[in-house]
Amino acid sequence: MITSVNRSLAEQIVNTIKDVCNHDINFIDCSGIILASTNPARIGTFHEIGLKAAQTGTSIEVTEDDSFSGTQKGINMPLYHEGRILAVIGITGVPDQIRKYAYLAERITNLLIREQELNQYSRREADKKHFVLQSLIQNDTSNRDYLSNSLETFHIGLNRSYRLILIRINSRYNLTNLSLIEQKTQEMFALAGISLFTFFYPRDFVALINTETYQKQAFIFHTFANENASILQVAVGKSTPVFQVHHSYESALTAINTLTNASENFALFDDLTLQLILSSVTDDTRNHFLQKTISGLSTQDLDIIKVYFSEDMSLIRTCDKLYLHKNTLQYKLNRIHKITGLNPRKFQDAVLLYLAVLFRTNL
To answer: What is the pTM for the complete model shown?
Structure first.
């Protein structure tokens, strides 16, 4: 609830009312000081009738200029909010001519104050969501009672399991357009029935979703990822109890780190296998491994070996896919063996080549 009006809101109020009635408007605080006015010369001056209106709680009309200190003819009406006087609105002019605007001015003022209250409530709620998710992700449960009460406010069951949804905006995306993708993301969360979400600067949205709900709504996240493939990536962490969500967050980070190929933009931690190993390898180790295995191969050699592995090392299917004669393919595989020292036809060597191809593809 608003208990006082700042200068910015007071200025908005007087300018909005003047747009409607085309008379100078004063916003007078309860001590009689004009906080905002459409007549700049009056800002900060004392308004005697404004003070009396605030003290008596009744509207006062003035028919002559300067009959009271700092006062011009007009109507000065107290503004009530939640049962108490918040300020006084003064409309300058002949009372008989401006009386018709008094009720309208009061309504406009109340609407603007209500809008401010809603904005403040939204910010407070957003701040609480941010605090709760940040605490859970950092495994900071030092204020467990407050967290528990807040989670219940957002309809998060303390004895149920949840998954952490991580949505990461592409680093090449112009963040000046953040509000647009933020709106789309919030609409998607609402569609999926998610009430607890926040944004971590500079480019991560995180949200909490019940495990059972996710199973029913998984298609929403797939669709969202596909529709915004050039803008963002979506990763879903493993299912954990609510106070173990930091583990779900860590698994979501692992999942999103596997999305190194431009054509991939969705990952569910549960579906990862070999990617779990690949994503944990450091860049130095990766580069060293590539140097020892396939650094000497040409782009054509790599294309051949990729198809060969994608066809389960079948010579016939690889030949059909590449439109090659069997002898030509044999020759090219022998050449790869000679360059790398690894024979694509032998299981152990093929594993090393396959891993090298995956490492290079995910660079």
So the answer is: 0.57
